[in-house]
Write a structure and sequence with these properties.
By secondary structure, the chain is α/β, with parallel strands linked by helices. 34% of the residues lie in helices and 29% in strands. It starts with a strand and ends with a helix.
Length: 248
C-alpha cells in the first residue's frame, strides 16, 4: 500500500506522517512507499497511475485545492482511494461527487486514522466482497466494488468494470441479478441493465451518466422510482460520511 500525503502545511504533513507510523507499529504492518507533497501541483507533476493506492488530500490548499487535485487524479486512476482532510464538514458536499474513501477532520485523531487505515488495508488486501463468474472455461473472482454496470447481451452478461475493462460471462441476467440483489449500491434501471450507483456521475435526460463516460438509459415506466432510489442512496452515503467525520 503506497501512500501519498498532500498538504500545504508542513506541521500537518509531519503530524499525519507520525500518526501513520504509530499505526504501523500498532497494527504490526509495513506499508510500501509513503511520500509527502506540499501541493496538488507537486503530486500531479509526478503522478503515475497505480503507483499509489491511498492518498490523504487536504481540501484547503492555495492555488490548486484538494478537490480540483483529486478530480485530476481520479481521471487517471479510478481505483485510487482518496481520503480528504478538512477543518470543516461543509466541504464534504463539494468532495462527494469524487466518491472519496473517507474524510478526516483536523486535528486528526489517532483512533480515527487507524480505523481508516485498517479499512483501506482490508480492502486493498483483497478482503472485499467478490462474486464468482465464469468467463469461457475459467472462473473469475470479481470485486463487487469494481462493477459499474451489468448488461444483458443475449445469452450472456457483460460486466463493465471500473478499470475500463469488460467481462462477457456465461450466466443469465437473472443469475447476476440474484448475485447482486443484496448489494446496496446497485439498481435495476432498465430491462437487462443494472448500474453500480457508486460509479454514477449524474442523472440527466433520463439516463445515468457514469464517471467513465458511459451513458445508461433509465426506463420510462418507473423512472421516478429509480431516480428516487439513487437519490436516497446518495443521501445515505453522505450521512455515513458525516458520521465518520464525527457528527452525532
Amino acid at each position: 500500500m503506497n501512500i501519498a500525503i498532500v498538504d500545504d502545511l508542513k506541521a500537518d504533513r509531519d503530524r499525519l506522517l507520525d500518526l501513520l507510523k504509530r499505526w504501523q507499529g500498532l497494527a504490526d504492518v509495513s506499508t510500501g512507499t509513503v511520500r509527502c507533497f506540499s501541493s496538488g501541483e507537486e503530486l500531479i507533476g509526478q503522478f503515475v497511475p497505480r503507483e499509489y493506492q491511498l492518498v490523504f488530500m487536504d481540501i484547503c490548499m492555495d492555488r490548486l485545492n484538494g478537490i480540483e487535485t483529486a478530480a485530476r487524479l481520479r481521471g487517471q486512476d479510478a481505483a485510487l482511494l482518496i481520503v480528504f482532510l478538512t477543518t470543516s464538514r461543509e466541504y464534504a458536499f463539494d468532495a462527494f461527487p469524487l466518491h472519496p474513501f473517507d474524510y478526516l477532520v483536523k486535528p486528526i485523531e489517532q483512533e480515527r486514522l487507524c480505523a481508516v487505515l485498517d479499512e483501506a488495508a482490508r480492502l486493498l488486501g483483497g478482503e472485499e466482497r467478490v462474486i464468482a463468474v465464469r468467463v469461457g472455461r475459467a472462473q473469475h473472482a470479481v470485486p463487487v466494488r469494481s462493477i459499474t454496470a451489468a448488461v444483458s447481451r443475449g445469452h450472456c452478461v457483460e460486466l463493465c468494470l471500473s478499470d475500463g475493462s469488460t467481462l462477457n460471462i456465461a450466466s443469465s441476467f437473472g443469475e447476476i441479478e440474484e448475485l447482486l440483489r443484496d448489494e446496496k449500491g446497485f439498481v435495476l434501471c432498465n430491462r437487462g441493465l443494472i448500474v453500480g450507483m457508486d460509479h454514477v456521475l449524474s442523472v440527466t435526460d433520463g439516463a445515468f451518466r457514469m464517471k467513465n463516460g458511459q451513458i445508461w438509459p433509465i426506463r420510462v415506466r418507473g423512472r421516478a422510482a429509480v431516480v428516487e432510489t439513487f437519490a436516497q442512496y446518495q443521501v445515505l452515503r453522505l450521512r455515513g460520511a458525516f458520521r465518520r467525520m464525527g457528527e452525532k
